[in-house]
Every structure is written in structure tokens, then in C-alpha cells.
Design goal:
Elements lengths: L5 H9 L5 H33 L2 H21 L3 H7 L3 H34 L3 H14 L4 H15 L3 H9 L1
Length: 171
Amino acid sequence: MSTDSPTAERKDASIPSIGLGTHSARALVYFFACNSTAKAFGLLTQLALLYLLNKRDFGVVQIALTVTSFIQLIGQSGVQDVLVRRRAFRAWAIPGFWLALTLGIVSSLLIIVSAPIAAWIYGDNAVVRQQLLWLLLLLAPSTLPFALSVVPQAQLLRKLQFHTLATINLI
């Protein structure tokens, strides 16, 4: 039986294309699954750290993650949102990349600058100060991967490729 028949063509033509509502529903499912998995993984990581580290070391890690999280907000300043909404994406992609990279570098530098200050404020003794200082210095480059992924993620959002984006965000 040949697939070149008019009936086969009509069946293909009668299949509706996926609408915006379906894309939105799929996006909700993908991002919910991604965020739930990330939260569960984060909880398991926290429990493993709690088991492996003593109270003082666990506190140092939590302080370092808190300081880093607040400063990382600067690097996530909405460049991706602006790129998604611009009609001329190609014209804005290169300036958006450089702006996101600059903000990521500024965030990293702010973490480096705040490391001795946070160590002085939160360090109970010299050992805790040293641990917090070095941990913050090690976490400083963590803002750069997000900065480098702003433009590709904005392009995926524009193309409504939510499954790919959710998978990338999970990794």
C-alpha cells in the first residue's frame, strides 16, 4: 500500500499543529519536573553534607553559599528576559552576551572582594575565618557558567524548546 495516496495526505494535513496552550502546558510540566528534581537533589546534598561535616564546617558552607547567592543576583539581572522579548534577537544577542558576561565577572569580583569581609564578620576564630575565606574564593567563579548560558537559553525560550531548556537547567 502506497503512502502517496490522497487519503494519507489528508490525514497529515488534518493533524493540527501544536498550539501555544499546549506548549505552555508542556513547559509547566517540564519546569515543574526539573525544579522538583533539583530541589530533591539539593535536599539530598544538604543531608549528605550534614552527615559528613561537623556543625562548624556545615555552618561555614552555609554562610558561604548564602553570601554567594546574594551576590549572584547581580549576575542574573534580567538580560535573558530582555533578549526573549526583543524582536531583533540576532541584533541584541551579541550585546546581551557581553552584558551578561560583564555582570558575571562583576559578580565574581564582588564575591572575591566580600570574602575577607564575610570572613571577618562571620568568623568566630582564625580557623573558621580561613575556611570561609577560601570557600568564598573557590565559589567566586560559579557565576560565570550562568553568564555564558544567557544567550543560548534565551534562544531556546524564544523557540519554545522547553524540554531542552529544562534538561539543561537540571544538569
